[in-house]
Amino acid sequence: MPGGGRVNRTRRGMIIAMDGPAGVGKSTVGGLVAKSLGCKFINTGEMYRALTWKALEEGVDLDDDRAVLDLAKRLKWEFKPVEEGGTTLKTFLDGQGVTLQIREERVSVNSSRVAANPGVRRFLSKLQRELGRDGNIVMEGRDITTHVFPDADAKIYLDASPEERASRRYRQLKSAGQDADKGAILAAILKRDLSDLKREINPLKQAPGALVIDSTHLTMHQVADKIIRHVRREARDAR
Questions:
Q1: Is residue 54 part of a domain?
Q2: What is the CATH number of the domain that holds 59?
Q3: What's the whole-model pTM score?
């Protein structure tokens, strides 16, 4: 199977793994795909953001790898829908939902430091594998297809030009009534891309056999439709 290998029959459902750079629309697309296929969906980047927020709240030095990892291990991690019957799993730390907190600007500008922590990546990768162990999940991030689930039933690499990603983010902020500087957004995206690509542990890259989709000139619904057709074809071919 070109998408990631033969379907694992020990799972109750498929694992659909999706990687790609910042601002490419993975969360929106992943949510659409999960809802259509009756799967759960999780954005693994929220785990790193949640830990970043908690470390900032507790005054933990983000450059102290051991202290940040110790904090991660002390926390009670839960992943569950916010609304009844929801498909998107949100992160809860010690019983507290952190969906709003992880969108704070101080979290956004510091989360890449936590994401580069080797111990933290190993710890959260283990949590991610436990979440997807039984299948029936769409999981997106930076190293899901290459490291967390290299045996995923379908692998997707979603991309778009930096300029288009900056434009999308700009429009998103403006529609929310926030001030936005497109040049600054583009610079931040390019910086994050470099960090993801050059990271020593599990850098962002295309997995062998992944379906690569350039969404620069596509809507999120068009991208989701492409993925859904691909996943169904993979499942059919594996029978």
A1: yes
A2: 3.40.50.300
A3: 0.88
Q: Letter for the amino acid at 94?
A: D
Tell me the two tokens of residue 162.
């930096």
Task: Count how many domains the chain has.
Answer: 1
131 is a domain residue: yes
Q: What share of the chain is helix, strand, coil (3-state, %, to 5)?
A: 50, 15, 35
Residues comprising the chain, all counted: 239
Burial readout 156-178 (b: 16 or more C-beta within 10 A, e: otherwise): bbbbbebebbbbbbbeeeeeeee
Structural domain of 226 = 15-237
Q: Looking at the domain assignment, is residue 50 inside a domain?
A: yes
The residue among 171, 166, 168, 172 whose CA lies nearest residue 185 is 166
Q: What is the pLDDT of residues 23-69, one digit of tens each?
A: 899 999 999 999 999 999 999 999 999 999 999 999 999 999 999 99
154-159, strands of its sheet edge to edge: 40-43, 137-141, 15-19, 154-159, 211-214
